[in-house]
Design goal:
single chain, 216 residues, alpha/beta, three-stranded antiparallel β-sheet, binds BIS(adenosine)-5'-pentaphosphate
């Protein structure tokens, strides 16, 4: 199964992708996570990407595409994948089609996680991420059992640098600029499925898994 998750910042792409990866036994590829790993590792890519990420802007395609191609070179994608955070532009959608067709693959379904602005701002301003294993929590929606400690691995929880209100608004504006063309592209390809992501995480996951089941 080859799946894509689209949606605004905070719609729950990461949360759902982790649930789907576990349930459907698929590789989870998050371009945001790959970029943050480069930033944390102080690589040349990370140093360049950080400037854009902290401003809420898209990292240039030349950097992201190379990183994605490397990830697609790993063997775990052969059994299927969930792509989270890519594509974000029509250009990226076309690049993805090329990468996949060179591997004789094609997307099965693209999930559009539809979410409203007040929900997005509430989710992102309270998001907590584990520094060690990347697990996601929320100060009030999904609080960890112990303050600022990961339930899964006891790692330290932190707030992302780009989860400041001003950067959140910029990320949303960037998303809105690009999304209509992207949705149209996948609608025309007959592979777009919209899910209301303002609902409880378990309800959203159930709907996605039900739909994904058609492509097993
Ligand atoms: P990225 O990391 O992809 O960020 P994003 O798209 O802005 O999305 P988020 O990770 O903020 O949100 P999410 O939808 O995954 O929500 P989550 O599940 O965490 O990208 C970061 C940056 O990297 C970009 O701004 C850009 O600079 C760069 N970048 C990445 N990809 C790129 C690309 N392809 N091209 C160019 N640049 C790129 O949930 C949020 C919170 O809500 C959590 O606390 C969670 O616990 C909670 N929550 C989730 N679902 C629910 C629910 N249903 N109910 C209640 N709470 C919930």
């Amino acid at each position: 199964m080859k799946l894509v998750l689209l949606g605004p910042p905070g719609a729950g792409k990461g949360t759902q992708a982790k649930g789907m990866a576990k349930e459907l036994k698929l590789a989870h590829i998050s371009t945001g996570d790959l970029l943050r790993a480069n930033v944390a590792g102080g690589t040349a890519l990370g140093l360049e990407a950080k400037e854009y990420m902290n401003k809420g802007l898209l990292v240039p395609d030349s950097l992201v595409t190379k990183m994605l191609e490397e990830r697609f070179g790993m063997p775990d994608i052969k059994t299927g994948f969930i792509l989270d955070g890519y594509p974000r532009t029509i250009n990226q959608a076309k690049t993805l089609d090329k990468i996949l067709s060179a591997k004789k693959m094609a997307l099965d379904v693209v999930f559009d996680l539809d979410s409203s602005e007040p929900v997005i701002v509430q989710r992102l301003s309270g998001r907590l991420v584990c520094r060690k294993c990347g697990a996601l929590f929320h100060k009030t929606n999904m609080p960890p059992k112990k303050n600022m400690v990961c339930d899964n691995c006891s790692g330290e929880l932190y707030q992302r640098d780009d989860d400041k209100e001003e950067t959140i608004r910029k990320r949303l504006a960037v998303y809105r600029q690009e999304v209509a063309a992207l949705l149209d592209y996948y609608k025309k390809g007959n592979i777009l499925f919209t899910v209301s992501a303002d609902q409880e995480a378990g309800v959203v996951l159930k709907k996605i898994i039900e739909k994904a089941g058609q492509y097993r």
